[in-house]
Write a structure and sequence with these properties.
The chain has one domain: OB fold (Dihydrolipoamide Acetyltransferase, E2P). Helix content is about 30%, strand content about 30%. The chain has four helices and eight strands, in the order H-E-E-E-E-E-H-E-E-H-E-H. A five-stranded mixed beta barrel has the order 2-3-4-7-6. A two-stranded antiparallel ribbon has the order 5-8.
């Protein structure tokens, strides 16, 4: 009987926690689900965003206990100080800032403690792909052999969009 009460307590606590998190509180997690749903609260640059989720797991390295940062898979945007870096950051911001997104990931982190993933926007589009389509990012071939991203880059290059205008 005690286990039944424990189970119901767990269910009620989980529901209550979810209600609080959905009302603006920052949620804390110790494991990364394959599909992580959270609000974007920061844009570091064109290919790095910050979520309203604090991750306390080991993979976060020096980011442990801080808002979870996502490094967009398959893409590379211009870095600070390079041509179009502000435009790439602004494009990322326009597409996802203050929106609840779904991050599809494998639980892998880079050396800076950023979770690697594809960001699915509320309208169903994929942020990573949108950046390549508009020329605000290139396909990061060093770390990705994805053919769809390669094709999107070729198309943006042919249309001389974004970085391909230079």
């Amino acid at each position: 009987m005690k286990s039944v009460y424990s189970f119901f307590f767990f269910i009620i606590f989980s529901f209550f926690s979810h209600s609080i998190c959905s009302q603006g509180a920052v949620s804390r997690i110790t494991f990364i689900p394959k599909v992580l749903k959270a609000e974007v609260v920061g844009i570091q640059d064109g290919d790095t965003i910050e979520l309203k989720v604090v991750y306390d797991g080991k993979g976060a390295r020096n980011r442990q206990g801080k808002n979870l940062r996502i490094r967009l898979l398959h893409v590379d945007c211009p870095e600070r100080g390079f041509p179009l870096w502000k435009q790439a950051k602004q494009t990322t911001s326009d597409l996802c800032f203050r929106k609840v997104v779904k991050v599809m990931n494998t639980g892998s982190f880079d050396r800076y403690g950023r979770l690697l993933g594809e960001v699915h926007l509320p309208d169903g589009k994929v942020l990573n792909k949108e950046l390549v389509k508009t020329g605000m990012a290139v396909h990061f071939k060093k770390y990705s052999g994805d053919r769809e991203y390669a094709a999107l880059e070729v198309k943006a290059k042919q249309q001389k969009l974004g970085v391909w205008k230079l």
